[in-house]
Amino acid sequence: MSKEIQLTDRINRIVASPALAVAAEAEKFRQSGADVVDFSIGEPDFPTPDHIKQAAIEAIQSNKTKYTAAAGVAPLRQAIVKWHAAQFGTAYEPAECVATTGGKHALFHTICCLIAAGDEVLIPAPYWVSFPDMVKYAGGTPVIIETRAAENFALTAAQVEAAITERTRLIIVNSPNNPTGAVIPRAEYERILDVCRRHNVMLMADECYSHFVYDSEPFSVAGAADAKPHVIVAGSCSKTFSMTGWRLGYALAPKPLADGIAKLQSQSVSNPTSISQYAALGALSGPMDTVGTMLAEYRRRRDRIVAGVRALPGVTCTEPQGAFYVFPNFEARLADRSVRNTTELARLLLEREHIAAVPGEAFGAPGHLRFSYATSMDRIEEGLRRLARFFAANAERKAGSAS
After folding, report:
1. How far apart are CA 215 and CA 217, in angstroms?
2. Residues above pLDDT 90, as percent of the chain
3. pTM for the whole thing?
């Protein structure tokens, strides 16, 4: 008789990614022949630019297919710090840079290097689904700071000051934000940095959506005066260069931490994929005209989907200032309890109308749904038609049961 497998506490205290779980459910419907309008995954629908593909092809043809240094090949690390300096006015050295297997690995490895049992990590909500679980895996305690729709979900320095305790080791700030599209104004972000500096708290800046801002210029808090000793940048090629499947990101950090990340990487994945590294080198060294093209199209889609969800009776929605998500509030539609929460609402939307969306509970914001508009305008229009039909049918069911 085989012994039952016992998983460790560190695995049992985390959950699988809710966004990927929704995508998997949507795929089941798609495999059965359903026409799914998939608003679940935040992935650009634009192809990887040709010059980046060509850089990868040339790497293969040049036999750059071997192991690399754990922190990444020297030309890529040099390109990352040069690109970040040109874009944001920072001054990192290659020794302070680690190329990682996607931006998610930069975040995960940083947390594993910094956080131990008893440490607190401040996480503004709504938050990206993986932040709390990464902290829990490392043995730390997530401390949630609730941001407000009335302030466009933008974190403030006063909120950070109020949440810090003697156990606070790190704050994770994602701006532009997934799932809300919130962008922290530069001046306020620098005030948050000042609070962290005074309390000796590290600030991890998740810059995954750095170049997708609609009403201001992209910036990095790491470019502020005296920022480097207090800031860790987690960056990614996934969104800016439409390279999600290439899995290439980076961490910029004080050298002792960068060395720790590289050490952990050497004992986990060895190194990021060599071909992806050279593709990223092509991306960071080449033209960025595709970014402007994508941003203009995202703005057009944003305006349409915001107008569409606001047209639904009882639904409110802040206007995203960055990224490519809307995060409407359905609490008024849940008030009659015909649908108990947005987890159930997301399930019903998928079952009845084949619309895939991620419930707000996954982001620490019950009552909301996240819709990604990184999809075609035709799909957005079809999704809005189905949403209107769903809520009209729901109202009819409610009226029928009342009579």
Report:
1. 7
2. 90
3. 0.94
